[in-house]
Amino acid sequence: MKKEWYSQQRLAAIQKWKDLAYGMFVHFGLYSLCGGVWDGENVKVGYSEQILSHGPVPQDSYEALKHSFSIENFDADAIASLAVAAGMRYIVLTAKHHDGFCLFDTATTDYSTMHSPCRKDIVAEMSRACSTHGLGFGLYYSWIDWHFPYALPISPHNSDAIPLEHMDYTMAQLTELLTGYGEICELWMDMGAPTRDQSRHVADLAHSLQPNIMVNGRVWNDCGDFLTMGDNQFPEHELQMPWQTPATIYHETWGYRSWQERKDAQGKVFQLSSALFSVLDGGGNYLLNIGPTGDGSIVPFEREVLEGIGREVRKRGLSRNPQGTVIAERIEKNETVHELGGATKQYRYTGGDYYSFHPIVTALSWKIELERDAVYEVAYRLSAHLEKEMKLCLDWEHDGGASDDDSDGTFIFTLKRGHQESIIFTNMVMRAGITTLTLHTVGSPIKRPELEGEDIILLLRKQRKE
């Protein structure tokens, strides 16, 4: 049998998340009151939701905005209704952004909406609205915190370490968020420079409290469940793992900006719906942002654009139409030895460094077509001797859905140091039709190490007919 690197629960969670396909990101907080303006001047440096960092803004003056956060026009139901009209299937809300202001009821700080004039638990309201409208609900949470006294101060790069006291605070808030608001489909961490252990602790906490949750790649250190691309970016290579593109309508900001140029809604509809369908066809999910105003209203231009995208979604649907189907390599019935070259490379992106994504090859695959059943010995050949041993897996899978176990399988083996050619497996049963052979490093697709020796060639030597 083919080895499965995920538990059945994880497989189900991944598929459920992939089925969500297209969602709404909502950036909302104290920065929404500013609208990208301070003391009557447009702050043109950086994103508007980071005005405290990029603008000439005294921290005490910014934090005093808490006392003006009345958000009389905020309507979670209206936001959820817009998501449905846009064809979206889930919403991710900024529970806490970099400024540390919490949109939920927390025992950890009074720097929250519950201690502002609105006295609202925004997270709770959005959770209920999503449930009412049949949407999934996810939470954004920033690693960094410009309010918490034991966190590192504001920096221009946002790649700050997480001190011990700050980590305890983070875990306490995440525990509140992951236990008090129903089922959470996605935890969207951001920024910061946690250690590998800190990343793992957050991912483990999320999985323990929400067994069906998907944690994004910006938990860092390859501890996430799906790759988060850079803002508005697409992968350079086809990926064999869950991934997501976070996107903005304007690219210049995520939070509300009062002086943002807003024109050509139909052009935006075409641009963003094209991006959505490209992401879907590439196997990814698309998370498109809106930024409500300081009183909680939906920006009319953003409503118009999302409703336009919704019309395009209703025409096409959210189906995935993969491009670039690989043609199977035919093996003639009288061949006794067949050399498989020209493998399809499979990539993943690693985020081991802060906010960087390096594509690495983790697998090679070949499609072969047989006229009749046969049994093969599988060997490998390299162009040069290996300098160190490497443990690999060979998967084989018959595309015809054969019912017997021997048509699919996994064999784990070691490429020996100093060897250029050796046998991998004998008596491999290959059924008539198309079989996919995949050679990969050990582990789940999102965590596999890099494959050394991309020039490897597989040799199929016929042992007998079935």
Broad shape: elongated
Structural class: alpha/beta
Per CATH, the class of the largest domain reads Alpha Beta
CATH architecture of the largest domain, by name, is Alpha-Beta Barrel
pLDDT below 50 for ≥5 consecutive residues: which ranges? none
List the topology elements:
Layout: H1 8-20, E1 22-26, H2 30-34, E2 37-38, E3 41-42, H3 51-54, H4 59-63, H5 76-85, E4 90-96, H6 122-132, E5 136-142, H7 164-179, E6 186-190, H8 196-209, E7 214-215, E8 227-228, E9 243-247, H9 265-281, E10 285-290, H10 300-316, E11 329-331, E12 337-340, E13 344-350, E14 358-370, E15 374-381, E16 390-398, E17 408-415, E18 421-430, E19 433-441, E20 457-465
Helix pairs in contact: 5-6, 5-10, 7-8, 9-10
Question: Could you walk me through the main structural features you see in this protein, from its secondary elements to its overall organization?
Answer:
With 466 residues, the chain is an alpha/beta fold. It has two domains: 8-316, Alpha-Beta Barrel (TIM Barrel); 329-465, Galactose-binding domain-like (Jelly Rolls). Helices cover 24% and strands 26% of the residues. The chain contains ten helices and 20 strands. The chain has helices at 8-20, 30-34, 51-54, 59-63, 76-85, 122-132, 164-179, 196-209, 265-281, 300-316; strands at 22-26, 37-38, 41-42, 90-96, 136-142, 186-190, 214-215, 227-228, 243-247, 285-290, 329-331, 337-340, 344-350, 358-370, 374-381, 390-398, 408-415, 421-430, 433-441, 457-465. Helix 6 links the parallel strand 4 (90-96) and strand 5. The protein is elongated, with a radius of gyration of 25 Å. It starts with 7 loop residues before the first helix and ends with a strand. The model has no long low-confidence stretch (mean pLDDT 92).
